[in-house]
Amino acid sequence: MEQAISILQISDLHLLTKSGDKMCNIDTELSFCKVLEYAFSKHKKFDLILVTGDLAQDPCQFNYQRIHQELKKYQTKAVCLPGNHDDFSLMQQFIQSEQVNCDKLVRFKDWLIICLNSKKVGTQGGFLDSNELIFLDDSLNKYPLMNTIIAVHHNSLPTKSRWLDTMIIENSDEFFSLLKQHTQVKAITCGHIHQKQEIIKDDKLILGMPSTCFQFKPNSTEYALDDKKPGYRVLLLYSTGEIKSNIYRLHS
């Protein structure tokens, strides 16, 4: 049986400046560590850890160093992309080693992972500026025969939570228009929404996921928290272009 590429996606860690500090009654650092530990105990090994933004609630050197240190323990390649709460320049400084870094492209034999920056300075909402779209188009043109997943922090499609959908990628129409020219793109996976999302659009799988700490209540008009447990997503990528994916959550 074909051995699939296995990706562990985690998102929205929201680390605070001081270890042990809590947000929404959750020790976000402890919860992040528990999710990683649980994922590796359950699945044993991954080919990549993909961290899709909001690594820090309070972006600073100490936060990013702690995240880098924790990820390195698992001796697995990890790439991190920024969310609306992050400082990407600090991430690039302090999450930067051969094993754990902020690389924007990851290549496997039959698959390409493209990591985009959807942070828009001065707002919590998402936007893909011209440099990101040019980078995306150039990468897709360079590797036209590779099955591709795009990873980005903000959601590109609505969640049906009115308050949350004010922060959707502003120019998602332009984004999807570009992608129509590149049939090798099989999926877009995001963070930010702190809940599960699985939609098909233009023959592409659109995925959103839980946070490693607190969760947002689905279908909410205003900001509201859910009682679901922290979680992660596993993506299995096959050479045929098929993707199998599941959400897993902590039990306690």
Please outline the helices and strands:
Blueprint: E1 5-10, E2 22-23, E3 26-27, H1 28-43, E4 48-52, H2 61-72, E5 78-81, H3 88-94, E6 100-101, E7 105-107, E8 111-115, H4 130-142, E9 147-152, H5 172-179, E10 185-190, E11 197-201, E12 204-208, E13 215-216, E14 225-226, E15 231-237, E16 243-249
Parallel strand pairs: 1-4, 4-5, 5-6, 8-9, 9-10, 10-12
Antiparallel strand pairs: 1-15, 2-3, 7-8, 11-12, 13-14, 15-16
Helix pairs in contact: 2-3
Let me know the number of strands: 16
State the assembly state of the protein chains.
single chain
Q: Please bin the fraction of helical residues.
A: 10-25%
> Which structural category fits the helices and strands?
alpha/beta
User: What is the 3D shape?
Assistant: globular
